[in-house]
Amino acid sequence: MLQQTDERQRIDVARTSRSSALSRFQTVFSCDFRYNAKRPFYWIWFLLMLWNAWLMSMGIWLIRSIDTAVGTEKSFVNSEFQIAFVFALMPGLMLGLFMAIGAGTPLIRDAQQKVNDIFNTTSLQPREYVWGKFLGAMASSMVVIVLFLLTLVLLNEVVPNPVSADIHGPFHLRNYVLPAFVFILPMMFFVSGVCFAISEFTRKAFLVYLFPVALLLFIMGFLRAWFPVDASPGFTRFMQFVDPTGFRWLKQTWLIVDRGVAFYNTQNIVYDSGFLLSRLCYVFFGLANVEISRRHYEKKHVRIPDQHLKHESGFAGRDESRPYKLKILVNPLPDMLRTETGTFSQILNVMRLELKEMASQPWLFAFIAMIAIVLVAPDRTGEGPLHLINIYASGPVATSAMFPLSIMICFLILFTNTESLYRETQTGFGSIIYSTPIRTFALLAGKGFANLFVAVFAMLVSFLAAAFMILASKEAPLEFRPFIQIWVYLMFPTFIFWTALVLAAFSLTKSRMSTYGVALAFFFFTGWGIVNSKLNWVTNWALVNTVTWSDFGSFDIDWSAFLLNRILYVAMGISLFVLAVNRFPRRSKDRNQRGRVESHPRLFVALKPAFFIGLPVLLAFSLWLKLEQGFQGSATRNAEKDYWRKNVATFINVPLPYLTRIDLDMRLQPATRSFQMQGSYEMINRLEKPLYRVPLTGVGRWRNLKWSVNGKPYKPENRSGMFVFVPEPPLQSHQTMTIGFSYDGVMLPGISRNGGYLDLGELRRDLPAGTALTGRNPWFVPVLGFVGTIGVDDQNRYEPPDPGPHFYEGITDAGIDRSLLQTRIQLDVPEEYFATSMGVLKSERVSNGRRILLWESDYPVRVFNVVAGKWVSKKGQSSVVYYNPRHSYNIDTMLLGLDSARKYYSQWFGPYVWKDLRMNEFPAYATYARGNPTNIFFSEGIGFLTKSLDQRAQFGLSAFGVTAHESAHQWWGHMLAPGEGPGGIVLAEGMANFATFCLTEQVEGDLFRQSIAKQIEAYYGENRAVSSERPLAQTTWFRPGDETVIYDKGGWVFWMMRNLLGRDQMYAGLTAFIKKWHLGPDHPVLEDFVKDMKPYAAEAQAYDEFVKQWFFEVKMPEYRYVEKPLKIQNGNLWEVKTVIRNVGNASMPVDVAATSGNRYEKNEKYREARTEVTILPGEQRSVLLRCNFEPSRIVVDPDIQVFQLQRNAATFRFP
Amino acid sequence: MLAVQNLVKVYPGGIAALQGVNLQIGNGMFGLLGPNGAGKTTFMKILAGLLEPTAGQVIFNDTNIVENPQHIWAHLGYLPQDFGFYPHLTGEEMLLYLLKLKGVQSENGLIKLASELLERVNLTFAAKRKVKDYSAGMRQRLGIAQAIAGKPPLIVVDEPTSGLDPEERLRFYHLLSELSQERTVILSTHIVEDVAVLCPRFAVIFQGRVVSETTPTLAISELNGSLYEGIVDREHLAKFVRDYFVTQTILYEGRNRTRIHLKDAPAPAGFHPVKPTLEDAYFIITRHAATN
User: Fold this and answer.
1) Residue B190 sits in the same domain as residue B242
2) 3-state class of B16 per DSSP?
């Protein structure tokens, strides 16, 4: 009995103990949870998430840039894929800091409030305490996320916005729950657990905040952006595993190759077990960090261990005060007196101490070094336009690093400023310092300046990192000017503004956490503005995406906008600082209304801030006015809209004459962006019917405009920029007329909307940096007919008309540049410039500081241009390049490209009909090129600053390739003008890519061609829009995804056609094709092309099948290994066996090879054994290869000859 | 001269920390005595310009510092009740920083001055040690050193002897008494002995009101002949407390040694008259205030 009683007592004690433990845990948990519920920080987070839910429900976040405004199938915002896409990005980009602060501060707060000593002398166990704190914070974060989810469901399913009703599909709970569990939850546990551990081990709030920022850097700079084409499956898998967001897995498994809107709308994500296991690992890792924290707390903070400290000299562990002896002090105090110190001196005192404090924090330096390394040091060039990768030059580096560096330094300023202000409260020093004579202004200014000094230090370190990389790369010289202009003049005012904002937020909220909440909310809204292109010169406080670097001159267009913007934000910084000083909680305010003590009259109090707000408001208003009056402002937009509204119905398909000759006299003033024009157009009516009206578009707001018809003054009807000429008598069939004009013009008047890359359509730049203008530009010269791109935006953009089947029968006009004309263009430019145009240079003279050049076409052209710059030139065998004297990197390569093009394209496509071939460099305000006849122009950001052939051999296009592409347009685009209608443009752009393949193969070798082809193929796979993609022959370059079809798929299809026909037959066919269609008036489209090329095919049936599949259907092969390939050694021979399946929907004969060595490495011996197979869609084939070497890989299509999806999946590496 | 006129402070929630305090404080030491929660720290913070009152004025050198707190900061040495320093700085560095902030200058230089000030508070041995390694008493002494820096005409010390051992407290008494010869020193404390030793004049604050303003001598003399002490058994103590004005009762060797205040009434049996102390006066004043 006694034993039973004892046992029962033991059990009762145990139960009581457990229930007490649970009770204690619950106490800690619920205390923190309730506390968090009242904190503004969590409410700010919640409100941001609410807004995010609304954005999601409106379809602001989309997997793809599918044009949901036009009648394509639309992505459902509530599909599992769509939600998963956002949920994978959201934690890293938006939630990391919130989660870190939520989980990383409870322990620090308790330590600061000195409650642990009391806790540790109660029954509370470390396990209960630590887990209670962590789970309390996690629960609070979970509540925010759950409320967000509920709101999202509400907005998507219960009360969807009627405006966006058609982007909401059927409701499935799984679509919300699974992505939340798979993507958000593991990230929450991971970030929260790690930050919790950091807070326990270091008790430094700063380090807690650094972790999510470092994670953000890692995600933005690496995980989200770097998807190497040639990565092995093992490496790919590894990278997916180290991505805590899960985004890489989602993108590479499901998104990188577009599967179509219908797929994403209706299918569920299949999560592979490996991925799910990795997500679980992140959860466990987070929890493991908490458990480790618990052990550390138990070891270090419950009962502080004896550390056997070495005692300092004279200190034996006790206070060594001497026994007191009473003595009469004649002078109890030393001689001293108080004087009034100047404000500057006070600021310096505070600054010195703050800097000393910062210098004692090694993690600050580590963070700065991390910023420098991650943002600046790696290859910052990345892949740019036309798949090019540029050299590591100072200007582009300084520009590309500007935004991420600004954001990182702003984070740094946020942390250091806030913690510096909070330190007074945290240490209790505030009571003392606030009662000294130091002015509040000096106190805040000292802290602010000290933190700005940190920003300067961070910039300096980043500059050193960039300088080191530039010098080490030996690609371009190090220049200080870009860094000074961009990082000092432009970035520094951002930091002034931001510092003041943080000070003001702290002064107003009086809370560290609320300051972080306010700042993060500000970041979030800025990010939203960036993503949705809502920023402009007035609101763009960090100058995001405003700078486009050009060695010709970066600030020609918007220098006044930059200046006003920077002054505006410095002024706002001053205003915010005044607000911070006025509202700083140095002296606790009395909140009672009755008997309130007022030190100043109400009017003065009200007017004082108004005085400081006035200047920023005035500046903002001035900037806004300038913006609205500029070439992207509302005045221009309204005028262009007027043009469209008045003329689209009347003139869109009106019959037009053809130009036969243009005669222009231009005087250019690049310094003022102005020009004077005098010229004439001769035109002929080639129609059988008379023409009663001849419309010319001119929207350049020209001054002193005068017209003439056949030499006589004429005043046409002006319909908002459409000038309508009514010839008397009407222009009869085959009759000519001449329209003359003279006017003064300004290109790009005023300022842009937000700087940066100006997507203006056709080139129109007349700047001190350089001039690039074309005859398609109605701001520059009158353009015949209605220009359908003026006045068109997202609201009124429409698909090109569907001409229906057989549209190409009969006479098909050219798609663009319908006239074949002669040109005479005289250019008058400042002496330091050189200017080019079409044809040959007839004369050149210099007088009175002006250079006058006369250019005349030696053979008809279809478009004209004018390009000018402060150049030097270099001649090749039959070509010349005009370029910035600092950009000599690739000139020889470009000359090689030009000369090779002339030689080989003439052999393959027909003789080059003009005498000269030139290439001109223009400033990088636009990043494209134009292969206009005889006078090609390239942006400096393409080709001129591209990495050299040797450096980029394995990575695709080089300057040679781009030159080859643009040179090909002499034939494909000008000698052969594609017809108007679907697929026509493929004959220009697709053919130019094909020509590039051929020329690269010819001059550089097939390995380089393979490299380009792979890159283009991967780009197509990633950027195609399956749901809206049309066959090549029906593509019009309107829908998202059309561009890669035209360029990349087009080039590839012609290449495969060459393989089918044979090289010589293909070239013979192409030469004949151009010869047939060269002079018009009928112009070909793809239907004509495939018909004309058929006689050159050896087998008509094979040709027809090929044409049907690649020109008239949307099909792609895709290969997978059904069985893991095996290699078996048999004596000296090796056998490789596998089964390959075609999971695509197209079929092509394709080689399969067992290989060893890397054919792209010069020092490696490459060997292979191959066979050819043709696998129909959905079928599989066994493959057996025998080789006399041990193979390391098995590759489908080792020579990169067959266009396919997911090529990497068709390569197997033997372990 | 410091003149406090009708000072009121009501915290959110209706907590009236000060309910109309009027004081005239001249040169010398002035004590503010009161129990915890009486409003002493609130009063001190208002004097230090760190807290805005709900109503009232504080005139210092003809300036109302309620409206112009920056005026007092230039003439103030303040030792708060609850304060701290930057833990990573040494004591000397911390003091130097504050000397600079206060605009203190010395012919021999600030470093020498800092050294002398630290010597005054017996912290020379720890001058180069980081503040985070200081004991509570050492931090208090450092706080005293910064409060007296620059010889401010007004020194406000709030509970200054908490954390000090008897020797240090004695040293501090000596220092403060010397300082008060030429300036106004306001000492707030709940330790009666501090006032008894240091303050020629003092006020008792109770529940936000000044219930007495007097001198220690006067306060004691008023109790002459009215204070008695005796032993009361434990079982009779409760009734005894009801029947008489008990000022103190201490359990000593199992029996309660009790002091009572009697005016114009015979003492109970076993009680004999004793010399009153300031502590008795304080208890009587506060008990009367509580009753009223």
Assistant:
1) no
2) strand
CB distance B77 to B33 below 8 Å? no
Q: Which domain holds residue B120?
A: 2-215
Kindly write down the DSSP assignment for every residue of A847-891, as one continuous string.
ETTEEEEEEE-SS-BS--EEEEES-EEEE-SS-EEEE-TT--TTH
Please give the tally of structural domains in chain B: 2
B69: CATH: 3.40.50.300
Q: Are residues B80 and B204 in the same domain?
A: yes
Span A413-434, average pLDDT: 91
> Pick from B217, B216, B220, B230: which is nearest to B273 by CA?
B230
What are φ and ψ of residue A919, in 5° steps?
Answer: -130, 135
Chain A partners within 8 Å of B54 (Cβ): 590, 592, 594-597
Instruction: Give mean pLDDT, residues A498-502.
Output: 96
| pTM over the 0.90 mark | no
Domain identity same for B186 and B266: no
**Which residues from chain A sit within 8 angstroms of residue B103, using beta carbons?**
338-341, 437
Task: Look at residue A953 in the predicted model and tell me its pLDDT.
Answer: 45
Q: Which of A90-104, A200-214, A218-232, A813-827 has the lowest mean pLDDT?
A: A218-232
* Alpha-carbon separation of residue B254 from A281, A367, A606 (angstroms): 66, 66, 69
B131 at the A interface (CB within 8 A)?
Answer: no
- Spell out where A404-457 has E strands: none
DSSP letters for B140-199: HHHHHHHHHTT--SEEEEESTTTT--HHHHHHHHHHHHHHTTSSEEEEEES-HHHHHHH-
| Judgement on whether residues B8 and B98 belong to the same structural domain of the protein | yes
Rounded to whole angstroms, what are the CA distances from A1081 to A477, A783, A1071, A1084?
52, 20, 18, 10
Would the CA dihedral through B159, B160, B166, B171 be positive or negative? negative
Instruction: Tell me what the pLDDT averaged over chain A comes to.
Output: 87
Same structural domain for residues B234 and B264?
Answer: yes
Angstrom distance (rounded) from CA A1103 to CA A1066: 12
Q: What is the largest CA-CA distance in chain A?
A: 130
* pLDDT computed for residue A111 by the predictor: 86
Shared domain for B205 and B284, answered yes or no, is no
Which backbone phi and psi does A202 adopt, to 5 degrees?
Answer: -110, -25
Lowest-confidence segment of A419-423, A535-539, A664-668, A925-929 by average pLDDT:
A925-929
Q: Are residues B260 and B200 in the same domain?
A: no
CB contact under 8 A, B84 and A428: yes
A274, A246 Cβ separation under 8 angstroms = no
* Cross-chain CB nearest to A337 (options B83, B97, B150): B150
Residues ≥6 apart with Cβ < 8 Å to B258? B229, B230, B231, B232, B237, B240, B246, B248, B249, B250
Interacting residues of A833 by C-beta distance below 8 A, sequence separation 6+: A668, A670, A771, A851, A868, A869, A870, A871
Query: Do the Cβ atoms of A674 and A703 come closer than 8 Å?
Result: no
Report the pLDDT averaged over residues B122-140: 90
Among candidate residues B167, B190, B215, the one where a domain is terminated: B215
CA A437 to chain centre: 51
- Report which of A870, A876, A871, A902 is spatially closest to residue A891, judged by C-alpha positions: A876
Residue of B69, B82, B83 lying closest to A587 (CB–CB): B69
**Per the CB < 8 Å rule, is B70 touching A326?**
no
Co-location of B272 and B247 in the same domain: yes
Please state which of the ranges A119-128, A504-513, A949-958, B162-171 shows the lowest mean pLDDT.
A949-958
| Distance in angstroms (rounded) separating the CA atoms of residues A862 and A660 | 10
| Secondary structure (3-state) at B128 | coil
User: pLDDT digits over A808-865, tens only?
Assistant: 888 898 988 889 999 999 999 999 999 999 999 999 999 999 999 999 999 999 999 9
Tokens of residue A902, six digits: 């002339």
Q: Do strands B255-261 and B209-214 pair parallel, antiparallel, or not at all (unpaired)?
A: unpaired
Last residue of a domain, one of B150, B181, B215: B215
